[in-house]
Structure formats: structure tokens, C-alpha cells
Amino acid sequence: MMRHTAWTRHSAAGSLVASLASVGAFALLASLIIPPHSPLPPALTGTAFAAGMTVNGLGAPSNPKITEPWNRFHDVDATVALLQSLERAHPGLAEWIDLGRSYEDRPIVGLAITNEATGKASEKPAMYIDGNIHGNEVQAAEVVLYTAWYLLETYGEIDRITKLLDEKAFYLVPTVNPDGRDHWFHDPSNPHLSRGGRIPTDNDLDGRFDEDGPDDLDGDGQITHMRIRDPWGRHEPDPEFPDELTQEVLRDEKGTYRLLGWEGYDNDGDGEVDEDGPGGYDPNRDWPWQWQPMSIQGGARDYPFSLPSTRAVGDFAKSHPNIAGAQSFHNAGGMILRGPGQESGPVAREDEEILAYIGRRGEEMLPFYKSWITWKDLYTVWGGEFEWFYGALGAFAFTNELWTNDNLYRREEEEGQEGRRDRAAFRRDMLMGDGFTPWTEFDHPDYGKVEIGGSPKTFGRVPPAFLIQEELHRNMAFTLYHAECMPLVKIADATVEDAGRGLRRLVVTVENQGVLPTRSAHDVENGITPPAVVSVRGADVVAAGIRKDPYRREMTWQEVRPERLLVPAIPGLERVVVEFLVLGGGNATIEVSSTKAGSDQKSLRVG
Amino acid sequence: MRGAVGVLAGLWSALLPGSRFRRERARVPGEEYPDAKTIASRLEKAAGSSNGLVRIETIGKNAAQQSLSVVRIGTGDPASPAVLVVAGLDGRHLHGIELALRHIEAFAADPKHARDVLDGGTLYVVPTLLPYASQSVTQRPARERATAPGAGDLDKDMERNEDMADDLDGDDVLRWVRVADSGGAYRTEEAEPGILHPADRNAGESGAWRLLTEGLDDDGDRRWNEEMDGGVLLAQNFPFRYEWFARNTGAHQVSEPETRALMDFVVMHPEIGIVLTYGFEDNLLQPWPEQKSSDPSLTGPGWGRKPVEAPNKNDLPIFREFSDRYLEAVGLSDAKGGLGVGGFVTDVRAEDELPIPAADDAAKGGFAASAYFHRGLVALSTPVWTPGVQLARLDAAEAAAKKAGGKDAKDGKNEREDGGKGDEDGGAADGGAGDGADGAANATADDASAPADSGDEATSTAGRDAPTADADADADDAAKELPKSVKDEARYLAWLREVDPAAWKDWAPFDHPDFPGRQVEVGGYAPLARIVPPLSVLDETFAGHQTFLEGLFAARPEIVLLSASLTEREGGVYALEFETQNVGYVPDVLAQGVFSRIVRPTRFEITLPKGAEMLGGTTRGPLERLRGEGTAVRTTRLLRLPGKEGVEVTVIAQHGGSDSRRVTPGENWRRP
Predict the structure, then answer these.
(1) What is the pLDDT of residue B26?
(2) For residue B602, which of B565, B650, B554, B556 has the smallest C-alpha distance?
């Protein structure tokens, strides 16, 4: 389908309302879209502007049913409301998926997106995408929301998207750690807090649970830093940004400040400050593949899938073996990570070549992002999520660490103090001074007079407002490319030849239109999913086999059940030629079916 | 399953001369073990008669929504140490379940004694996660079944249960099929043609027999009965050294409702410091070897560590000591090794048959191994009984008999190889055999040529395959040339046939449609005959196991305050000093417990009177690790007191209980 014109005339109250005839119609639509228990979704609260004309930029929906500025972050309620709006606005493309509940009983939900007219999502190769397994990594959920919005709003407008949803499916789950996410939004926090879940945990092994977390001493809703004036301290105000930064003094210098860590008290009288805050474990160390306990992998809990949230996602993924590609979004650092997470972790050579290729394409789409192998280039991870999708489910999987400070000034940021000055300059020049809580004095019961100040939670790990949509779009583009690479089986050709003595030879070419193989080498090696099946109905099959060479009739015959020929794997953009020797004539139907590469069928007359 | 074959075979056997038209139900070893209903009623009876000591609780449900029970014996006080006994993780290990039940019944029968033993602590017993396990041998045809119901499609051909075993000879028991094949994995010796042993290819031995489970290749894939026992093996579904993509280990670690229920129970009961598992895992019959240990740094960051697969060198002596105590308790101290699974009998495995795992294999995904390596608990495990244990018992009984009879030492030096007779003292000849309904229950070891079953079998081609206790001198000479594993198995088989004739069936020819024109025979061990002993054997060994279990309560860590004093210094300043001691045998935290970062260090808490002031130091904190047998640690604090009111000192150990004492100014208390 050709793309609609980019010219759209708006009259009032944003693009959604533009298509409505009256306020009454708006109310009616709103009642259909907005769930009764939810507040008016942010997506529907546009700003009216005067009559006139706008011209859409390229690569975006021309007339979206749901408008969203994509320069902000949504808490769990807002996330769910936006998903509901999208689902209701796009029947036939979006289907609600309910994976489960978190420890604190928040929903883990998403959308299955495909053109249902061309087949159910479960029957197509599927791309699973989630985000925000670390609660503080909030823009990770926004990428997934943006992807849902973009797919749904551009289907029928942009040919690549239309083809993608006609042939393939997406399972999009914005946040798999809704507890961590909501506490980051609603509690005093900082860029790094609320990473894990909320199950009370005795991190300091003193028999008490979560008894000494950070405290918002100055009541500004942020957990910033504490520093104390100290003539023996090792820090001093930065000469360039003395009101914001401190810098470490040289070895032969005396400083004026000592840094004391996050805001907080010694709540439990054990001499430590903030050593046992809420939660204290890592949901991204709870996945079975290459799982190790807490002694080996900090953040692991008692056994794999011991958390309700990860188990819910795991159960969903296990029951959807058509997932051929998987992506999880995190922050920060600007990385496209692939496995293994450990030096000893198994990744088949053929699979690594494909993953590396896709990763390199990602580097082109995502400025300053690096395509890395987790253990080798970052650090060792046991029991990580995306590795489980590869190792246990046979899906090609990546994790993107969203946002890099290189994007502040579009150049590689300096290490250390120079980098900190870059960020301070960016706050001053590009954020108009926003993004820093000035140091203020505070009488601390444990330390005496201290100063509290620093970056708010929305600076450092997430993009500033004007760069959010770019970050979301580029990362989505990477995952859509990955999704396009997913395997897709088609019967490219089927012919009948007379083989003599009443036998006919059915020669069938089955192609894989995707770049990825129908099964990863790791899958084939370990039998994670079954082989593709090429079957014949309506004819008496006496023998079946696969040509070793597509050009010559040198066959590997299948000894048993020839009517159901098993094809271990078809490489990307390749084909396999199979032959069936059949008796008699009549109409026959050939079908190819692959767990991760969809299915196809063709009818023809045999004799 | 090609059912018609089984029907015809049954009809054929029923029409044989001497057979009854209406066959009696064949007896199968193990069927005297309790079924789910009996287990439930025995637990209820024990609870009902225990004067409130024994309570049945539920830890979860299996996929069929059957409740999984844990039995609580004692207070259940989470502040007091607890021991956990677990059995029934492998459906074949019926004797572990029985032993667990007997522990419960023994404590219930004598609550006063139980309370003395528990000493304020709690014994938790999970008698089985597979309450229906014995169905495998009570149903017909009888079979071995180790797993919980699960996914199936073991051969990954997208068909489930399409090739199950078939009762080829119609005797209602699924055994083995052996096919004469020089490429086969097994061979026999002339003197023992019924006993299969692995061909040692490295030594130039050729095979003679291919060994299959009883049945047909129903799906034509040249594998036989590969879908049998297609569920998940709970015993190998735990996290330590979990084996991905292995047969029966499940989708991932702790993937099953049963294993999750057990793990959650352990997590919810941090007071459990000692775990005793009855199953194929083993560090009691076969202690962990002295040479294999680990020595990782116990402190430092969690990242960068490597998985540890050998016991910590500081813990190893403790586990070896427990093994010694166990062997002594169950009367096996004098055994010459070979007690564990493997080595003979249990290492024979038909193609696509679930193995009987030796200790190292059983530890892969094992519950006890996970409890020690991942959670830092004292995790002990024993198969309880094995063919090797039985031979050791025969050795001991013979030695005792010879000693009593004044025989000289010369006769005794080759006990293992001699082919012992089931003895009257230490053996179990007086129990199980006579209970069966089988027509051949009167067969004895003296009657080597008697068919082991009811007589409705074809003539065996290996009719002399069971050596007898009274084998003549020629046979003895021949036996001396046999490989040790064959000699051991011959001796085991002789004992087994004596105590339970139904446990073995002589190989009989069978015209197998999958092997036309080939020599094929059906026979061998009955299900569980290599795994589960007759109940009478448990009668003998139970007391030793009960003694060992009770000894675990005595050995547990026990943390006490050894001394406490408040000594006045100048200016109203007092020095508070107290000593904390572990009077138990087990350390308050194993080295692996420290490494695990799960087991809490023993800690102190000081409660000050109003107006008191600590002059440095905290009122609470961790103590150094307290190794057992009287290790003590001293803690000192300076404080200012407003008057004569004292301070309270409390020490708390996760696995060793707690102690508390109020000390008044000037007091210098020491535990009497």
C-alpha cells in the first residue's frame, strides 16, 4: 500500500480530535478508548492550536489515532492506559496480552501486534521486546511503547511496516518490573535507585529486611548526594563549575570536602548508612540459563524464576515458541549487547556470526552505540534475561543499553572529571540550567552539618526531553530490522514428475525468506524446537528425502514416516529442495511448518 | 504401542503347558511399599497419636492438584534450629519414602523421647514429592518410573508417547530385551550367561548383546520405547550443576511445582541448617573424597567469582565425619567400599532407559547438592540401600557367623568373591520372599534351575544363569576367573532370588518382529529389583538411620553466652564484655555458608537502659564465625550507664538458636 499524503489539516485540539465531528463524538470515542478505571490518558490531552497547516516530517505516522509527544516518561498506570488506548484504537492489529502480576501486584502486560487477517500472532515468527527489567531504567519501557505506537499507527501507511505485520508478529511488554518503575516515579529516588524488585531482602544479613535505605533528608523528592566540609577531605569544588561539581584533589594536596554517599541515616544503628534499602536483588539475574546463586552472581535470588515477574515473562515466552527474535531494553551506556554473558557461555559460531552482523547494523543506526559481547566487552553476567531467550528458547536475542552521554555533544565524552564538566556544561547550555539540585546545608544526626545536592533522577541515565524521541526511534528501528531478519518459510516451487511404475516425484523447494535460519545452530544442536516439517496430504507417500545439493538428485532419505519429512534447518535467504515419491494421483496439499518460521501450503494436482 | 503383540504374547503364555488359564497377578518387587492412600493414612495416624507433636502441613500442590505434605515434628519455632528430611524425589526410591515415614512414626510413638531429642528444635520431614510413586509397580504391566508427569517427546520428533514399552511376554512385568549383537554394549561370561556386564572396548573386549527395554519400536525410528518415563526427574531439577537439555531434567531448574514447593519451603525456613536426603545423591555411604575440595575467598565482591563444584576444604572434614557416623550407625563401618550406586548391577542400562545415577551424576541438579553448594547448609544424602550395601551386609553376616563358628580367617578372606548364601542373621531371607502371591515363591537359592516365576515361561536359554549359594567346587573355580563385577552381581543375584524370586526372570527366547531371524531374549530384573530392597531389609536398617537422624540434633550448632560482665571504670564508664560460644559440633555457619552470602553470621544485640550511652561501637553487629566444639569469641563495648540498671545481651544464630542475658553493673557472670 502506498503511503498516505503527509499533508494533514488540523482544526483544533490535536490530531486525534481532528477526525471527529463534534465534542460529543470525542466524548464517545474517549469512553471507548479510555478504560473506566483509568484517568484520562496523557495521550489524549493534546494542546489546542489555531487553524493552519502542518507538514509532517518523514518516517512518522501522518495521522495517528493516538497522539503522544514522546518527550516524557510514563508511570505504570500511564503505561497501561496508553497500551489500552492503542489496543482499542487498532482492533485487528493489537491484542492485549496479560503475562501476570508483580510482587506488589502490578500488572505485567503488553500487546501482541500483527495483522490478524493474515494469521494469528502465535502462527507467525514473533519478535519479543520488553524493557525496564531494572526499574530505574525508565526509557526502556518508552521504547517498547513507542514501538507499539509506531507499528500500529503506520500500518497501511509505510510499506515496510505493513509487510512486517502481515508476515510477522510482535509481543511488546513495556515494563517487566512495574514495581521498580513505579517506586522510581513516585518515591524519592535518583538515577540509580529502584533498580530491582520490592521483595523485602536482608542485604546486610543482620536479620532485618530493608531497614536502612536512603532517606530524602531535604524533602525535595530526590535522593542526591551528601558531602561534608572537611579539611582532611579528598575533594574540593571544581574550578569550572564550583557550584555543582567537586573534584578529587591530587595526592599531595589537601581537600575541603569529603563525599558521604547518598542521602540517608544509619536507620538501624549498625554503623552503616543506606546498606539495606528496599529490595536489593536483580531481576536480570533470575533467569535460568547459566544461572548462578548469590555467591557467584550478586543480585541473584534463591533459584531461577523465583520472582513472580520474571516467572510470568518466562511462562509467556515458554508458551510462545514462535518467538524467533528477542530484545530487552536497559540503560545506560549505548551498547548493543549479545551473549554469552560468561566466558564459558555457549554460543554457536554460526549464530555468533549472525548476531555480530545484526549488531554491526545496529551500530550504524545508533550513533555512538557499540556492538559488544557481554562478558568480553562489559562484564560477566550469570542468569541474564536475553541470554535465556537465546540459550533456552533458541531465539536470537539482544540487549540494548539505552542512552550514552556521547549524544550530549555528539562526540565521545571524556573520561572522569572532563566528562562531568561536559555534563555540567550541557545542563547550563542546553537544559537552561535544569538538571541539578544545588547544594544546601542540612543538620545530619550522624555526621553533623552536611551539604546535600546533585543530579536529579532524570539526568544521567535517560535522555533530556528533546532527545527522547530520537533515542526511542533509533532503537526501535534496530529492532524492526532484527524482526525483518526473522526466518519465514515459503513454498517457492512445487512440481510433479513421472517417476515410472505408477510413482510420481513431487519436487518441492522450500525457501527461508528471512536472514536468520529457521533454527539457530544452538537450537539444532540441543533440540530446543523441532525441525521444520514438510508434509504431503492427499497422496500416498512412499519415500521422502532432502536433496544434499539443490542442483543434483543426491538424496538423504528419511527412513520412517515419509509423509512427514523433517528438515533440521534452512539457512537465511536459502532454500532446501525436498522430494516425495507418491503413488497414485489426485489433488495433494503440501505444507511446510516451522516453529519459529511460520508455515505455508500449496495445493497441486499429482498426476 | 502395538497392543496386539502383547495380547497374543499373553495368550500364548497362558496356553503353555502348566499355566493357569486365569493367571494370578504376578508379584513385583516393591509393590509392598505404600501407595498414596497408605502414605496419607499413616501420616494422619502418626499425627493423631502424637499428642500434638506431629503436624501435617502442605507445601504446595503438584500438577494434578494433589497436596504435597511436610510433616512438622516439634515446635516449629522459627528461632530454633531445624533439620529437614526429604525423600521421594525419584519415583524409584520407594525405600526412602518408607524410611521417612518410619521416622515420623517413631517420633510420634514416643513424644517424650522426641521432645528430648529435638530440644526445642523442629524436625521437618517431606516424605515424598511423588506420593503416587509406587503405582509404577502396583499397576500392570509393572515398570520403573522415576519422574513426575511432564512434557514427554523425549526423542523430539513432535510426537508424545508414541513409543512406549510393551509387555512382550505377557507376564505383566516390563523387563529387558537382549539381542545377540557383536556391536552391543554388553557381554556375558560362560559361567554366568545371564549376567550382562559392559564390554571393555579399551581392553579389546567385544560386545555380545544389545540391551533394550521390553517392547517394540512402535514408531519405526530404530529406537525402542524411548518415550517411557517421559516426565521430569524431580531429583535432578534443582539448580546446582543443572544439566540443560538432558533427558528428563525439565525445561529449566526448579521448573516443576513440586521442586518449587520444596525450594520455597527451604527458603521460607531459614532456621533449617541440616538437610538429610534419601535418594541417589550420596555423601554418606560414599563420603566426599578427601582430595577434592575448593578454597575460594569467602569474602569480597560477588562479581568475578567462578562457580564452585567441590566442597570447601574447611567443610570437608565435617562431611566426612558425618559419613563415618552414618556408616557406624547403620552397621557398615567395616565395609570395604563399593557401597554406592554403580560398579555392578546398577551400571547396566538398556538403551533409552533412565540410568540409576551414581553419586556424581545424582548431584547434577540435585537437591542436597544445591542445599550445600548454593545455600550453605549441612546437606547429607544417602541412597540408604544399594546392591553394594547388601553385599557388605552379607560379608558382615558371614564374618560374624564364621567368627561364631570358629572358622579360620582363610575362609573369610575372599568373602566378596565366594558367592555368599543368604544368611539367617544379617540378610533379609526371612522377609519379603514368602509374602508374594507368585507361584514360585518357594524357589530357593538351593534350587538354581527352578524358574523364578510361575513356570508359565518358555524354557530359558540361560537357565543356569543364577549361581547358587551351594555352588559346587567347579563352579567356584570358574567363578574365580570372572570379572569382579560379574562375581559381585552373581552373588547379589543369588541373594535376591532367595529373598524374592519374582525379582529375576531367566532370559527366554522371543521372536521379536523388529529383529527377524535374530537371537532375542526377554528377561532379567524386575522393575526396582536393583534399586529397592525388600521391606524386611529396611526393618533391619531403620534403627541405625533413626539413630543417625537423632544424632544430627545433637550435632547441630548451639550458640550460648559463655560469660558476660559489666566492669566499672572511672567516670561512670563501664566495660561490657561477653563471650559467645558454639557448644555444638557443626559450625554456626559453614565455610560454604559464608561463601553463599545467604546464611547470616551469628550476631549480637545489646539493649541499653534508658539514658545509657554507647561510647564507641555499635549496639548490634555480626560475630566472627564460630566453629563447633566450644569455639568462643569475645566482644567488648564501652558504655556509660545512668544508674544501676543493667544491659541485656542477646546472641542470635540462624542455625544455632539464640541466648540472652541481662547483666547488671559490677556483675561478672560465667556459665556454670
Answers:
(1) 77
(2) B650
The model's pTM is: 0.90
Distance from the B254 Cα atom to the nearest Cα atom in chain A, whole angstroms: 7
Report which residue type is found at A155.
Answer: Y
**Helix A139-154 to helix A76-89 angle, to the nearest 10 degrees?**
10
Q: Which of residues 97-126 of B touch A (CB under 8 A)?
A: none
Q: Are B511 and B216 in contact (CB under 8 A)?
A: no
CA A204 to chain centroid, in Å, comes to 32
CA angle B297, B303, B304 (to 5 degrees): 70
CA A65 to chain centre: 24
pLDDT of residue A248: 96
For strands B378-382 and B272-278, give the pairing.
Answer: parallel
Residue with cell 569455639: B631
- Helix pair A23-33, A76-89: axis angle to 10 deg: 110
Burial class of residue A22, CB neighbours in 10 A (0-12, 13-18, 19+): exposed
Going by C-beta distance under 8 Å and a sequence separation of 6 or more, which residues neighbour residue B587?
A: B318, B557, B593, B625, B626, B627, B628, B631
Q: What is the dihedral angle through the alpha carbons of A213, A218, A221, A226, rounded to the nearest 10 degrees?
A: -60
Contact yes or no for B239 and A298 at CB 8 A: no
CA A595 – CA A532 distance, rounded (Å)? 7
Determine the straight-line distance between the first and last CA of chain B, rounded to whole angstroms.
Answer: 74
**Chain A nearest-CA residue for B305:** A296
**How crowded is residue B99: how many other Cβ atoms within 10 Å of its Cβ?**
23
pLDDT value of residue B23: 56
CA distance A453 to A451: 7
Q: Is B129 exposed, middle or buried (0-12, 13-18, 19+ CB in 10 A)?
A: buried
Mean pLDDT value across residues A562-571 = 96
CA–CA distance, A480 with A498 (Å, rounded to integer): 45
To which residue does cell 536433496 refer? A547
pLDDT for B9 equals 45
The per-residue pLDDT of chain A, averaged, comes to: 92
Chain A residues with CB under 8 Å of B312 CB are none
CA dihedral for A408, A412, A414, A418, sign (positive or negative): negative
Indicate whether A548 pLDDT > 50: yes
CB contacts of A295 in chain B (<8 Å) are 302, 305, 308, 374, 376, 595-598
Q: Is the pLDDT confidence value at A310 over 80? A: yes
Closest by Cβ to B596, choosing from A206, A294, A299: A294
pLDDT score at B155: 86
The C-alpha cell that represents B454 in the structure block:
510361575
Low-confidence ranges of chain B (pLDDT < 50): 1-21, 407, 409-475, 479
Cα distance between residue B326 and residue B541, in whole Å: 11
The residue count for chain B = 672
DSSP secondary structure of B474-503 = HHHHHHHTS-HHHHHHHHHHHHHHHH-GGG
- Percent share of chain A, pLDDT over 90: 89
Q: Note the pLDDT tens digit of each residue in B463-507.
A: 333 333 333 444 455 545 799 999 999 999 999 999 999 999 999
Question: Tens digit of pLDDT for each residue in A126-172?
Answer: 999 999 999 999 999 999 999 999 999 999 999 999 999 999 999 99
Is A296 in contact with B157 (Cβ distance < 8 A)? no
Tens of pLDDT, residue by residue over A313-322, are 999 999 999 9
**Interchain proximity A271–B267, CB inside 8 Å:** no
- ipTM score assigned to the predicted complex: 0.91
Residues across chain A: 607
At residue B477, the pLDDT reads: 52
C-alpha cell at A486: 526473522
Which single residue is written with the C-alpha cell 500483527?
Answer: A114
Decide: B604 and B621 in contact? Cβ < 8 Å.
yes
pLDDT value at position B343? 86
